[in-house]
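User: structure tokens for this one?
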Amino acid sequence: MLLAVFSDIHGNRQAFEACLKAAQARGAERIVLLGDLVGYGADPEWVVDMAMELVGRGAVAVRGNHDQAVNSSAETMNAEAQIAIEWTRGRLDTAQRRFLAELPMLVEDGDRLFVHSEASHPQRWHYVRSTVDAARSLISTPAHVTFCGHIHRPALYSMSVTAKMTSLVPKTDVSVPLLRGRQWLAVLGAVGQPRDGDPSAAFVLFDTVSCQITYCRAPYDIASAANRIRENGLPHWLADRLSQGR
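Assistant:
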């Protein structure tokens, strides 16, 4: 089965639509959503409704810190993110908020694990910035491949049976075989707010038979997404950064 894995959509309808279309064109058979459906972007209602529809059709979805913040004042964020979350709370109805609240922190699917931040303490929202961070996640699960997001920059880590770590920055559209005998941590870039210098929306395709992973990019209408942010009175930096990929 060919999985299409998305993370950090952040209320960006234009980016999510582009990724869904690109994944469908490439033959994706099942959708996985790694959290942060909302926050920053100006179309949280549409994104949550689409996620609800996809889950109803068999997609997997887990909870991100922005999703949790919609229903919990205990989640603290920087000022601009907090403004966006408070605005988002006023846009979502009861059913949409309940959907976010009931999302699991992680999902185990055969020899794969899906989580927003990392596997050792999903509820603490740690970032995977280094091989040390990746190792902490990998040793906490027997999964062959763990998929996570949260940091908005793509990376791929592996750990050997002797706990030797390797890492690489994956190249777009270059498939990488995730060899057996090693554990892997695939860190996705963001759909809705990339921070790796490339403003194109990011997602991953994973073939469950060949165990090959491909990091993909999808150009989208950044100007429209940015204008939606400005029109709704959200901080302009949240719009400006979209074209910068940071």
